[in-house]
Amino acid sequence: MTQRLRPVLLAAAGLGLFCATACTPDGRPASGAVRAPASAEARSDAPAADGPSARAAASESADGRPASASPPEPAATGGATRSPDVAASTAPPAPPAWPRAGFAGLSFAIPPDWTVVGQGDGIGCAEPRHSSGRPRMFGCSGLQIKAGSAIAGYEGEPYAPGGAGGWYAATDVQPCPVRPATADGSFNGVASAHSAPVESGLRPVGARQAWYDRWGAGCRDGSRFSPRAWYLPLSRVLFLDYTGHAETGRILGSVRFPG
């Protein structure tokens, strides 16, 4: 009887030693544990366990989840997906073409509801056909064009790029283009015109470069506006935008010169 029990006791002792490091609290071997001989596990110079199970155990966080696990795939939204090589958007359509008009040998495009009005020898105005109530300076509510001998600077002096008050060719007090009359109906004239440009440089007009100036100007009631001029000395043409119009840039970009 004693001889038959000895193998059982020895097996139990071996199991106990193994469970000291690789068993759960209820005595069962831990899931995925590597059964190595007791002598190999106890040796300090034994190589560390390697393989997928060991690496996974080393990378687990305190709550038992893999610390470096990949995030879950995003849930499908049910919408159509776009191929990466398909453009996200298309180019906006080109704006409708404007009709062309002419003055002093020049040709340029103007909005369909604009027209060119002659204002005297060598002076024209490209403006809306219905300009009532719009800001107006020197009788023009759009872009004024001067050519040849009609070009003048401050109070009729010869025009010079960068000159003080170069936009104001009148010798008398002109109505303010922003508010020609004050609240009580009295005359509201231009109060400050003879000032140096606040911005100067070269700007394109059609395929050529023009001298560009922008001034600051004011009226008696405190209103402010910014006249601008584009001067081409060889072509002897001066464009003037007294109050600022969204259409000016496109008109100037479309200019064609004779010859």
Describe this structure in a few short sentences.
The protein is α+β, with helices and mostly antiparallel strands and 259 residues long. The protein is built from four helices and twelve strands. Helices cover 15% and strands 22% of the residues.
Describe the structure.
The chain is α+β, with helices and mostly antiparallel strands. 15% of the residues lie in helices and 22% in strands. The protein contains four helices and twelve strands, in the order αααββββββββββββα. The protein has a seven-stranded antiparallel β-sheet with strand order 3-4-5-12-11-8-7. Strands 6-9-10 form a three-stranded antiparallel β-sheet, with no helix packed on it. A hairpin with a 2-residue loop joins strand 3 (114-120) and strand 4 (123-128).
**Roughly what is the average pLDDT, rounded to an integer?**
77
Query: N-to-C SSE series?
Result: HHHEEEEEEEEEEEEH
Report the oligomer: single chain
Return the structural class: alpha+beta
Radius of gyration: 44 Å
Helix content: 10-25%
* Unreliable parts: 1-86
Query: What is the number of helical segments per DSSP (H or I, 4+ residues)?
Result: 4
